[in-house]
Amino acid sequence: MRDRLRDILEVRTRRPDTIAELARQRRRRASLLGDGNQLFIIAADHPARGALRAGDRAMAMADRAGLLERLCVALARPGVDGVLGTADIVEDLLLLGALDEKVVVGCMNRGGLAGTVFEIDDRFTGYDAASIEQMGLDGGKMLLRIDPGDPATAATMQSCAQAVSELAGRRLMAMVEPFISHRDGGRVRNDLSTEAVIRSITVASGLGTTSAWTWLKIPVVDDMERVLAASTLPALLLGGEVSADQDAAFGRWRKALALPSVRGLVVGRALLFPPDDDVAAAVDTAVGLLRG
């Protein structure tokens, strides 16, 4: 992969127009959903928010060659439908030829950098709806953290509503990842209680001028039946942090995937950096849960 990284740098340095040309030439799928009416996306949008940790490895996602190698392994496994990433990740994968016939979702707001005083002010510093359409991507993802004690929430919420409307106007998926959040010892933490997740879903479902193209990206928490009863929108389960007990995590996913409004998984670090470092095996297990 490090040899191929030199090729990427050569293109970026001497022939940057190649990236847009490859985006135009990319073979796209006819529909978002794959076999079994489900969608399995590998998430790789963490680095742009300064979130580089995976499990006990504080700088796991800081090595771009290593991250790309893991992404290519995951995307090549049968049953993996696509990837979620910022422009730099998506373009690297384009240059590696890894995105043909894949669903590609562009990450839109990465301005709420992890650990900063302005973390809740999640500015849209990545893709916008126009560039997602121009690059031939299949949708846009946004993070909506609602902190009742931080007035910056209002601006983020307004920006997300605008993005939902602009994506829908182009008939593109708007993937909204909502949380109720609060500061604890200076750090922003997401409230993963059943009631908080329900509340976040009801807010996210009402964003924008139409919800026709909106999907929810939600955590697996207690009492998922109650959580998913809060909305009629299709939901994708997020994988969350790397778990030391991966079998237990897989068990929680399996149970939630049986619910009718769940349409798949969006998982990043939990599969890209599994405890045993066997990316292919972790991805295959997740595919088995989804397809089974």
Assign the CATH topology.
TIM Barrel
Helix content: 25-40%
Mean residue pLDDT: 94
Q: So how many helices?
A: 11
Number of domains: 1
Shape: globular
N-to-C SSE string, H for helix and E for strand: HHEHEHEHEHEEHEHEHEHH
E-strand count = 9
Q: DSSP strand (E) fraction?
A: 15-25%
Write the CATH architecture name.
Alpha-Beta Barrel
N- to C-terminal distance = 33 Å
In spatial order, strands of the major sheet run 1-2-3-4-5-7-8-9
**CATH level-four homologous superfamily name:** Aldolase class I
Q: From the alpha-carbon coordinates, what is the Rg to the nearest angstrom?
A: 18 Å
Low-confidence stretches at least 5 residues in length (pLDDT < 50)? none
Chain oligomer state: single chain
| Helix-strand makeup class | alpha/beta
Largest sheet: 8 strands, parallel, barrel
CATH class: Alpha Beta
